[in-house]
Amino acid sequence: MWEVQPVRSGRFSLTRTLPDSLTTWEIKAVSMFQNGICVAEPVQVSVNLPLSVNIPLPYQVVRGEQLDLEGSVYNQQPDSVTYCLTLKAGPALCLLKSQPVAGQEGQHSTTCSSWSKLSAGGVGKVTFTVMGLEPGEHTLTFTLKTRSRTQDIVQKKLRVVPEGVKTAKFSGGTLDPQGLYGSEKRTVTLKNHVPANIVPNTPVERMLTINGEVLGDFVSVVHSAEGLRQLVNMPAGSAEAELGGLLPLFQVYQYLETTGRWDVLGGDIQKNSADMRRKIKEGLVSISSFRGGDSSYSMWLKREPSTWLTALSSAAGRIVQRQVVLQTQQTHGCRLGSC
């Protein structure tokens, strides 16, 4: 608030009613005259209602859980007062000892069946019992009354969450309309079924995420030298872990070779390319250590073979080895020709 008041010499008095029930206002006076300006020290004024209520709510409650709301009524008056506090809620909440509100469909409220007396400067305790019937944020309206009039109205939101444990399921696919990574694919069908043991009347959230290019996540890692070092120095482990480190590295290498965007790594382009090829070859050698005498692959050294791991390792090995070895030979050929 800002006001301009003409003031003559001497004392000036101004009376204003400050809004809000529980607030500290800072009042500052600035005077301007022909010879300059003067700023007075600010004064803080605490404002409160003669009779007020405070009902703290929990962050959230589980549907079907009975909740006892305990609050306080504050009497700032010099005299005692007789008061009544009511609570009004919607149909999504069960309110103990409540009745339907006339003219407000679905709303129900407690009544002033009994009045309480509160001494001057005293604090009175109030309690309400509610239960959440539907998930969501529901409005609670507390009305503080005296024999003469309504003193304070407070509205708060009660968050109700469904029972059970929240779970997430993921499914995905690859769209390749131009066939850059194999056969052309323009349609992906995502089959998501609602679990049979879902809690009744529980909302199901579905979110669809689409990445512009298949290697976007991997390329974002190698846009910095630190990301490249983390990618090419992944620790060794099982055959599955070795493949999990080799395949993304090879995909990034193939992407950079195809697009010619080695400049994103900075520094010496030939050295970066050679280092990545070296890491890929080391990955191939490491994976081959999990191959048995019958050319099958096992998850761990000298363990039983795995059919799916054998198929994946063989296919990945052929593609990676053919691509890297061919490009290495082409690079050496260019160097020999230039000599």
UniProtKB/TrEMBL annotation:
InterPro entries: A2M/Complement_sys, Alpha-macroglobulin_TED, Ig-like_fold, Macroglobln_a2, Terpenoid_cyclase/PrenylTrfase
Highest taxon of source: Eukaryota
Domain Alpha-2-macroglobulin: 1-87
Protein name per Swiss-Prot or TrEMBL: Complement C5 C3 and PZP-like alpha-2-macroglobulin domain-containing protein 4
Transmembrane segments: none
Annotated GO MF terms: endopeptidase inhibitor activity
Gene3D superfamilies noted in UniProt: 1.50.10.20, 2.20.130.20, 2.60.120.1540, Immunoglobulins
GO annotation, cellular component aspect: extracellular space
Annotated SMART domains: A2M
